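Margin note: ligand = glutathione.
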Amino acid sequence: MADAILYGSPFSNFVRSARLAFEEKGVAYTLERADIKDPAYRRLHPFARMPALRHGEFRLSESFAIMRYVDEAFDGASLQPVDPRARARMTQWVSAFNDYFVAVIGRRVIAECYATVLFNRPMDDAVFEAALPEARHQLGVLDGVLAEQHYLAGDWLSLADLMYFPHLFYVVMTPRTADLLPPFKHLHRWFQEMSARPSAQATIPPMEELDAA
Ligand SMILES: N[C@@H](CCC(=O)N[C@@H](CS)C(=O)NCC(=O)O)C(=O)O
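Resulting structure:
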């Protein structure tokens, strides 16, 4: 079967999570930049977001669905725990990511720092500052989990870790937010270990092209 094609930008957090699944699994894929505003792209993603996947005739959208497909359709060490409780824990953290973490750390903290690049407008300091207490609370929750275990779903890397890492990468790399993570020492330990993985190294966004706040 043809290699998988992942559509999206190398700057996108969600695209990077999907790429991390390919890299961790050792599965060949091609990253293709897509014009998500092109009506034809809706055949791949009905809501015109990224990433989307094409694997032969099979089309799929939504990062977590793509990550599960990559994990389950190809050989290699599993990125999802077998134990039902650990697997449920992975799903819990992915759900929390999609519903709470993205809304605060994705859309109000990181996105504000990149408002010029993303929305062609100045950063809204009030939105950014107002989000910080909840952002710190969320980082504290993750820190508490990682104080007890090595990865978010237990002792082994899982899709939950791959989901959070790209967002936290921007928190650490962005001058305005760089001091947020280090006080959470367990989360910081996890972040440093995740950053050193070959999968993370292979998917670093070309930051020099961005002008962060
Ligand atoms: N729930 C989606 C979220 C995807 C998403 O929001 N992607 C962003 C890029 S990081 C996007 O496509 N933004 C384009 C836009 O909002 O126009 C997923 O998990 O794949």
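The chain has two domains: 4-73, 84-203.
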